[in-house]
Amino acid sequence: MRYLLLCLCSALTGLQGFSQLGVGSGQTLFIANGTTFFVDSLVLIPNANTNISNTNLTHDGAFITGPGGTKSITRVYRFSNPITFTGDAGIVFDDAELNGNPKASLQIAYNSNGTWTTTNNSTVNGNFVSYPATGGSIYNQLTAIVSGAVLPVTFTRFTATREAQHVQLNWAMGDIDGLTGFDVEYSNDGRNWSNAGRVPAIPMLHDFSYQHRDLNFTQRYYRIVANEASGLRTYTRLLGVRNGGEANSVNIIRKGTSTLLYFNGTVPTSVQVYDMNGRLLMNRGVQQQQVEITGVASGTYIIHYMVDGQKFARKVQL
């Protein structure tokens, strides 16, 4: 166990730079009751003995934007794993970091498990803003913003997994108040994006999912967009999904009045065509990489095909 006792000095207001504190797995940072602890210009004064473990603290010059365009100061602290804290928490800031916020009206704002809270009992002393954290507050992020401002909801989890017949997307939000829904977007190059579908934001629900059944790719990127009634859009990080190489890829070729499926790489053993109601319209064994689709009217269909014993699916327009 490491014991760290630090004192805040007046020279702290001049601190610059992007600092980081790392407390590794199996290590503990102990801050004694009443001790003034600071790293960079984040200040914590616990009112009980406090242990911090398995987290990294970083800060950057970015800011958080809330509905209507309200912006925090350009100093945001982030914990890689949340900490629980009771006592005085504060930030020393520079005038150049105010980002349009009146100094005298600043309040500490913190993110706890995806939900931003702007405090109403912070105090400003020169270039230092602080507030008394009670009840074991949980911190993922910490910044400051003008009194009464609302910061956006944030994603607490996002996963993308390649399944047998679809890509399974799961995400969670700490708070969905003010959200109208989510857009599921995908890209094959990470730059040009298409919409896969939309999921409504259901009140009191925090976990959401979507199945994307287009598997015609080798490498694909996904992101989720949270849409607020105010017009603000919040994005997840990008997640990449691999699809086992060219053996799973199929191209649609139109030749006169015929529609052909051309399979890249390994030839599938069979192909089925289903309508959007799940009815099987065609089931054919495959012996070559080119398969003609016959007896099917123009429209949207789901094609299933088997490659090396694994089943794939793709939504196509025939």
Elements, N to C (H/E)? EEEEEEEEEEEEEEEEEEEEEEEEE
Give the domain tally: 3
Number of helices: 0
Q: Largest sheet, described in full? A: 10 strands, mixed
Distance separating the two termini: 66 Å
Question: Which regions are unreliable across 5 or more consecutive residues at pLDDT < 50?
Answer: 1-19
Question: What percent strand?
Answer: over 45%
Q: Give the class from helix and strand content and strand pairing.
A: mainly beta
Could you tell me the radius of gyration in angstroms? 26 Å
- The strand count comes to 25
Q: What's the mean pLDDT score?
A: 81
Please summarize what this structure is:
The protein is mostly beta strands and 318 residues long.
Fold topology:
Layout: E1 2-3, E2 20-31, E3 37-39, E4 42-46, E5 50-60, E6 76-92, E7 106-112, E8 115-118, E9 123-125, E10 128-146, E11 155-162, E12 167-173, E13 179-187, E14 194-200, E15 207-212, E16 219-228, E17 233-235, E18 239-242, E19 250-255, E20 258-263, E21 270-274, E22 280-285, E23 290-293, E24 300-307, E25 310-317
Parallel strand pairs: 1-2
Antiparallel strand pairs: 2-5, 3-4, 4-6, 5-6, 6-10, 7-8, 7-10, 9-10, 11-12, 12-15, 13-14, 13-16, 16-17, 16-18, 19-20, 20-23, 21-22, 21-24, 24-25
Description:
The chain has 318 residues and is mostly beta strands. The protein folds into 3 domains: 2-146; 155-242, Immunoglobulins (Immunoglobulin-like, Sandwich); 246-317, Immunoglobulin-like (Sandwich). The protein is 0% helix and 57% strand. It contains no helices and 25 strands. The chain has strands at residues 2-3, 20-31, 37-39, 42-46, 50-60, 76-92, 106-112, 115-118, 123-125, 128-146, 155-162, 167-173, 179-187, 194-200, 207-212, 219-228, 233-235, 239-242, 250-255, 258-263, 270-274, 280-285, 290-293, 300-307, 310-317. The strands form 5 sheets. Strands 1, 2, 3, 4, 5, 6, 7, 8, 9 and 10 form a 10-stranded mixed beta sheet that branches. Strands 13, 14, 16, 17 and 18 form a 5-stranded antiparallel beta sheet that branches. The model is unreliable at 1-19 (pLDDT under 50).
